[in-house]
Amino acid sequence: MAEASSIRPDTSDMAIAHMSFRSSLAAAPGLIRSAVGDDHRRTLIANYYVNVLAFLEVHHEGEEEFLFPLLLERVPEHREVVELAIEQHRQVLPLLAAAKAATARWESDGDSAGPALALALGSLEEGLSAHLDHEEAAIVPLATEHVTVEEWEALPKHTAANFKGDKIWLILGLGRENRTPQQRATQLDRWPPKLREWWEAVGEPSFNVLIAEVRQTS
Questions:
Q1: What residue ranges define each of the domains in the chain, with the CATH number in brackets?
Q2: pTM of the entire predicted model
């Protein structure tokens, strides 16, 4: 049996979460255009982005609370790497706030607010991209070596407990579609029985219906 200290966390889920942000933000111009003149669809797409942005917000909060302080403590020789990630979070905050406000305005004001939302989400995508690249290239390898399995698992637990959107199953679904079939099966095996039953009976069907409607742009 391996010693606890030799068991490293599976940090691949960081890149999986990042793929959800990247793909959702990249799709924004087309999704916004697809809702022109359609109040029902505008509400649908706006709610989709409300949930994606809430996921990004709680994802960053978890890193700031559970990950960055550990790395600053355990790998002080890489302090500049961690501090850069923290500073990038600060730079993203106003872009995230602007995207949230623009989403709300688009939903309430209609098509006239669409270009401003596309611009806000595009600015967030641009500002976020370098940060995601930095985390995947520099932060994740440090976490793999210097954070325990239990400490790493605090991140998704924080997301589940503090997510402020109204569709946690959407976030789970976006993550699962970016996993390989084997990764999806492994994830299900690791979930508590009640969570797995809920996902299979409620979460996955809800996700499949919604995401198909969201992506039906023509």
A1: 11-167 (1.20.120.520)
A2: 0.94
